[in-house]
Amino acid sequence: MSDPGPHKAGGLLKGRLGEAVDGALARASVSVGYDCRLARHDLAGSRAHARMLAKAGLVSGEELAAIESGLDVLARDVDAGRMVWDEALEDVHMNLEKALTDLIGPAGAKLHTARSRNDQVALDERLFLIEASGRVGALLRDLRAALVERASGAGAAPMPGYTHLQRAQPILLAHHLLAYFQMLSRDQQRLADLGPRLAVMPLGSGALAGTGLPILPLEVASELGLSPLAQNSLDAVASRDHLMEFLSFGAILMVHLSRLAEDIVLWCSSEFGFASLPDSLSTTSSMMPQKKNPDGAELMRGKAGRAIGNLVSLLATVKGLPMSYNRDLQEDKEPLFDTVETLELVLPLAAQMVRGLVFDLERLRAAADDPYVAATDLADHLVLKGLPFRQAHAAVGALVARAMARGVPLRDIGAESLREFCPQADPDVLGALDLDSLLAARSSTPGGTAPASVGRQLEEAKRALEIEAAAADLPGKPGA
Fold first, then answer.
1. What is the CA radius of gyration of the chain?
2. Is 280 a catalytic residue?
3. What's the pLDDT at 474?
4. Which in 166, 246, 258, 432 has the greatest CB count within 10 A?
5. Which is the catalytic residue, given 60, 269, 285, 443?
């Protein structure tokens, strides 16, 4: 069959028994402006469905050949952007079916045998999300790899750790970066966990009750790489919890990325001065030429709201729906598409920023060597001497107040003040409160900030990425 070029699908939206519908309803019913993004997946499902119909004896071999040839033409037009979408036909499914019938004649009209748009869109969305999850999973792994690269390169460089955005205790820069690795690793696992629930085969459920025609749904599932078959036809066409799971994953991931973005904004500020971004990842002011703004981080932080809103939108849409399919579910696609687009935009940007950050290690070390961050370690020393922690806390608090009043670091408070407030302490303990000793002391906690602990965390992170990269090459692992 020759390729006739672009297709213009025609027709009018009809009401029950052919009566024309109101213009406002017609406009509200149109979804092809956005669900055309499902075209490739709709064509893949149609091809598998047509082959199954032929095996079941519901279309002839000649009709199958015509259908497959026509689907090839439509696939080329979709890929090349030549397909002309007609709003009068409402959605991507009817547009493609009409275009196919215009191409090959009556055989095209047989393609809808034993299926409804209800199970058709359920299949399309699953195929779309399996593919999108694979792309998002790969981008997320790359960001996590970037964090591991920077943590590995940071060595034993210290920085201040914060609670309440106040300097709390010294930590390693690598420890801070690996904290985000752990957050994002849980996101990666959430996406991988969704894989089996995505790969359910809904086609054959019809509008809601299945079909009486002798179909072979296992044939379609096998060709599309899906397993198992949906166990309830009502549930198959009515449920969108797999989409809600993905949107939940996306919202949590974007919240984590927003927190990373906030750290980058703070680190790159003049007040902190811990890091800077290259000019290629910054912008300037339209008015103040000296400005170097971390716009990428700010945009990443801002876009978290979109992902959160998309999850809430779909939850609100589905929460009051009776069984089974309802037209409200037309509203499931835009939040899904938007979250996928947002993640595919933000994840590479985040990886670039992580790789592009230039840390001021001297400034980080100076900030980590805060005059009073050793207070907890001194209290721990008193605990080892038999003092209850609450008493140790109070004693060291009083000693810190004395040091602040004198304007000296805690380790320079002197033996006399130490004996006054902390008589149980060894006289030479103040000399052991240097920065490197404070960091090394955190070795009892496997996930702590001691260089040895962080080294183990780093090796485990590298091994995890290697295992995931191997698993991602296996079929049926969209988010591994």
1. 30
2. no
3. 58
4. 246
5. 285
